[in-house]
Automatic annotation (TrEMBL), chain A:
This is Aldehyde dehydrogenase family protein. Gene3D superfamilies: Aldehyde Dehydrogenase, Chain A, domain 1. The keyword Oxidoreductase applies. The keyword Phosphoprotein does not apply. Keywords: Oxidoreductase. GO terms for molecular function: oxidoreductase activity. Pfam families: Aldedh (PF00171). Residues 30-254 form the Aldehyde dehydrogenase domain.
From TrEMBL, chain B:
InterPro entries: Ald_DH/histidinol_DH, Ald_DH_C, Ald_DH_CS_GLU, Ald_DH_N, Aldehyde_DH_dom. Belongs to the aldehyde dehydrogenase family. PROSITE patterns: ALDEHYDE_DEHYDR_GLU. Pfam families: Aldedh (PF00171). It comes from Herbihabitans rhizosphaerae. GO terms for molecular function: oxidoreductase activity, acting on the aldehyde or oxo group of donors, NAD or NADP as acceptor. This is Aldehyde dehydrogenase (NAD+). The active site is at E257. Keywords: Oxidoreductase.
Amino acid sequence: MSDRMSVLKTYKLFIGGAFPRSESGRSYPVNDHRGNFLANAAQASRKDVREAVTAARKAFPGWSGATAYNRGQVLYRVAELLEGRREQFIAEVAASEGVQAKRAQSIVDGAIDRWVWYAGWTDKLAMVFGSSNPVAGPYFNFTMPEPTGVAGVLAPQQSSLLGLVSVLAPVIATGSTAVVVSSLDRPLPAITLSEVLATSDVPGGVVNILTGRAAELGPWLASHADVNAIDLTGAPESMRADLERAAAGTVKRVLRAPSSEPDWTRAPDISRLKRYLEHKTVWHPVGV
Amino acid sequence: MTTWEYAPAPENRDIANLKPNYRMFVDGEFTEGTGEPLKTVNPATEEVLAEVSTASTSDVDRAVKAARRAHDRVWGKMPGAERAKYVYRIARMIAERARELAVLESLDNGKPIKESRDVDVPLASAHFFHHAGWADKLSYAGYGPDPRPVGVAGQVIPWNFPLLMAAWKIAPALACGNTVVLKPAETTPLTALVLAEIVQQADLPPGVVNILPGAGDVGAAVVEHPGVDKVAFTGSTDVGKIIQRAIAGTGKKLTLELGGKAANVVFDDAPLDQAVEGIVNGIFFNQGHVCCAGSRLLVQESVADELLEKLRARVSTLRVGDPLDKNTDVGAINSAEQLRKITDLVASGEAEGAERWTSACPLPDKGFFFAPTVFSGVSQAMRIAREEIFGPVLSVLTFRTPEEAVAKANNTPYGLSAGIWTDKGSRILWMAQKLRAGVVWANTFNRFDPTAPFGGYQESGFGREGGRVGLEAYLDV
């Protein structure tokens, strides 16, 4: 056994590619499943939400305007980095979720594979969701999917990594940008993911991760006029109808959540991708 | 120069087969509603056309239960190939009764007969025809091997395209195996009730289609009824938000097609005469009662004066008046209430300092009419540049660079449609990518087709109508 004191990490928020503390100065203790202290996490505030939305909006033109091939490569690169941090994620998932090492391993592997699955979607979306439309007249007409914009994501409370990846990756695969509120009690894998994203080629602001209470931050995201969509997965069940009502103020796209958290190990489908896509139909005359 | 005046060319109103009374259609039968009857008015003459019975809350309940029965026992499990034939029948019967429907639509709504005859009715028929063919091909639509219907659809539609909006709502719902309870607009219930006759003649099983006339309270009762699985609404953004709030927490599936404030962008290399025709079509088509109307004209500064001059000359020739006259270009404003709203917004434009030009065309003595109006010198902060006027009023702004055009075009919480006029192909495609709107018309405007998905970004709503992606609204996916 070494005598050396280990260097503990300060866990922070991830906004616009930087790692600030909460402007509120608040933090809260994060414990493992047995109640042993792991770390202090920053407790994000309303103002942090606003900063994160501003960063996400600023990043949107560049990210949505990148070629699909480029977005695919950037996202695949994230999977490569996740693989490199595999051991750290396994330890954090095991500590956070209280699962055995073998189970934690399979969760992390699933999360990495899921990321790869979504990375591969970027340049297929327009083919699968777009169409050429045979209108009854001399017009060339096509429909293409486009990203919805800025999405507020209340990440799952239970599944700290696989669940998080399952709700985040489809947002950014479409070209939308995200403000994520992580699991309150299990935020460490989310913070580590933000470190991965910061060292990847994902531009700052495309993903912003806030640790803190979905119950506190959700209403600000749901009512924010510059947020286009909101995923209620990690919201307390008792608040979901209110959040949906608040979201109606600017006609947000709402991803409702089932009453209990889905089984994230099940194979994903295209439904989440679709929720972050708009369809644009373009007309042009032919022959005149 | 000799001026050749138009001779009157009125369509015969008897063709509308107007009846003194219309009743609601529930469970396959026309029955007296227990709500307060409404009188529907011809907006071009202010005469009462007919008395229409309206639904009460208990009628809504009866209709939803009938729709549920029809869905569970018959329609939802009927083979798609059989459903298709019913929907084809409706398409054909609309075409057969096209002239009657067109005249009735113009009487009840005030839109010019050439428009109801050439646009509304043919497109309504086409919408049923297109969707009929989907009924037995849904497994190829990209929603899995056997996509199921949602169930009972509650649908609320506006007064600007009464029959066409009914078709946009009912056709995909039926093709996908849903049953419907539809509320037409308070001021334009008649053609939807003739459509109900067609549904009856086509021998659809009772309860598959229910049509309940009434005001907003009936719409609210339909939307909020716990037996409704899916809500579809076309109308104002304000009411759309109320509906989204009302169904929060219920799990009902929702699609909204709401308001707009479309930018119609004209570059200096556009063929100006062609652009003028498109601008006129964009804002004066259907008296400007169009959610996707090109109500904000953005003109490149170098051609603004020339374009405005051509535009005013062209707008001066628009004939405003009797909707049943085949030469009429702009008909009646649908209601006194809408006319008031238009008048108020126009007054705000003047008060805020925009320069008003209004066509000197003669207006009829009776009825609700508003002469085509063009505001120039409009700035982005003015109400007439931000709010949906829903009338024959165009706001003209200018820009210098394509980037500025994009920024101004996108400077709105709406996002339904947009137009681009330029001869440069690469600029069209660049603009089409940059404009945050669900429909982009390049070198054309206000074109619609059942195969072309239609719907908005942002506060113009969500979900699409038409095309393959439009089916999703009515499938349990």
